[in-house]
Model the fold of this input.
Amino acid sequence: MKRWKFVVVFAILISLLFVLSSCGAWKPLFTEEEVLSKLSERYGEDFVILETIDNCEYRTDNKTIRCRLYLAAPSENQEQTFWVHSTLDKNWGGDSLPVQYNRGVLDTYAFDYFLERFDMLLTENEINHFFRAKSTKANVTEHLENQHLQGGEFVIFITEETAEDIVTNVLELLEQIADEYPLSNYLDYFSHPAYMPIRLGITFCDEDCAIVGGETISPSTFITPFDKKFDENDNIVYRDNVETILANIYKTIYTN
Done:
């Protein structure tokens, strides 16, 4: 009899866990005031919302339950528009709850600055490259003018002889941009290694590689800008440096 009681109690507890976790699906999205507050905390200035798009099309692997897209701008410069993505996402909760529902706010303010600035600096330094979004070659200016979220990839061409100089130059450009507002505030806000601050990739590819519709089909080396990790002394450091990138390039591209 005691065994049956235990089974019944256990079943009730499991049911309650599922009920409690599913209640999270009814969480409201952040209000406009909460979104603006998060942006101000992130960047240290005030913003305004210019347009609201409910039931936006941006959903990630069926994890996004609801989302809302905003067109926003700094209060003092409302021509400098960017996109804000407010979401309610479903994630597995591990041992504590079967499912967890989390609200989040992603924006493209720092991302847009990085995209335009990095593209310009690569061009000024005569580094052969192109940008692609959703595996398709894209013009950076046109991409920024259209509705978008973070994402995309810069493909940078190298040779075995120029790889070291180009990688060194690229990392110097990244370091330069990291000190410029609004990227500096954004990177400081998302400084912990748990975050991927800029959701964009940089791919190094041999200049003789074949390109079909923006797709590289030869070996390449991929990094994420400003990605961090803990070193052996638990200090936070950048995940990639000249030595690690070059080692990967020579291993994946130039090893016969």
Summary: Residues 6-23 have pLDDT under 50 and may be disordered. The chain has two domains: 27-107, 110-252. The first helix runs from residue 2 to 23. The helical segments are 2-23, 32-43, 109-124, 140-145, 163-178, 183-189, 242-252.
